[in-house]
Amino acid sequence: MATPTASAPIAKSVGSRTPMTVDQVFILTRYQLRDYLRSRRFVILYGIVVAIGVIFTALLAHYRPHGLVGSAAGLYGSIWGGGVTFVIVLAAIFFGGDAIAGEFQNKTGYFLMGLPIRRAAVYAGKFIAAFVASLGAVVVFLLILLANGAFYLGGNAFPWQLGASFLLSVVYLLAVMGATFLFSSLFKTSAYGIILTALLFLFGFSILQTVVTDLTTLEPWFVISYADAVIGDIFVNPYPMHYAVGPAFPGGPIVASWTPTVIEGVAIMLGYFLVTSIAGLLLFEREEFT
User: Fold this and answer.
1) Range(s) of the domain holding residue 64
2) Which partner for 102 in 12, 98, 124, 284 could form a disulfide, CB atoms 3.0-4.6 Å apart?
3) Is 7's pLDDT higher than 50?
4) How far apart are alpha carbons 276 and 200 in whole angstroms?
5) What does the pLDDT look like over 181-233, one tens digit per residue?
6) Residue 101: which of 188, 1, 193 has the closest Cα?
7) Contact call for residues 41 and 130 (beta carbons, < 8 A)
């Protein structure tokens, strides 16, 4: 978040003129990233990611389940597909939860808004900084998993699906970060935005998807937890059917199941990113520092 100490070098960089918006975004992104690197939250988040990597590395070494260490699809589809979404939500909470609300709550916005800086540049600079810091956590998680893959799979540790899945996770990160900034702009207290992001992305959307599918059998295309399934499903060969009807378990009730196509998943995630980012910016533009 912006601090009074960070405002001084920004003002010095701006000088006596109002720079182009791109210049403003670059300056704000740089100083926001510097603040992240010096913050306790950076150490805590990356420590959590490393701890998660150490735990699943130890479990793989101890149990060596053939379904995971025997194939790239099993290893990456299970651990990467299931774990990276959690890392993304956690990173968005750490770096984006108070990005806008903190300016009101901590009164730092009074220093920043007094400079000849456009609010759109402030919003974009904070967004890019939070995105880059969060992407670093995702890359750390990926590197730990790649080390395990190289050990167990050798030359088969780098399938093309992993690169595609990584790009899909980047799109998902944009969507989650957009929603996080929307919630942060919506409230003037950081805790509300952080709690709402955690509840929705860790539990709320998944519950909504289940309810919609079980009660109506309609495709839950409007729920982002439905779209993020493509991150793990891309490792399945052949790719799962878009729509299937069958028993939930042998002898169980007949249920309908939906699986988004890759193009559909990307479209949903990009839609969330665009809508939430624009809505968050509009809210931030209208807020007054009184």
Assistant:
1) 4-286
2) 98
3) no
4) 14
5) 998 888 877 788 888 889 999 999 999 998 888 888 889 999 999 999 999 99
6) 188
7) no
Task: Please tell me whether the overall predicted TM-score, pTM, comes out greater than 0.90 for this model.
Answer: no
Residue 146, token pair as written in the block: 């790649």
Taking only the tens place, the pLDDT of each residue in 218-276 is 899 999 999 999 999 999 989 988 888 777 667 667 777 889 999 999 999 999 999 99
How many structural domains compose the chain?
A: 1
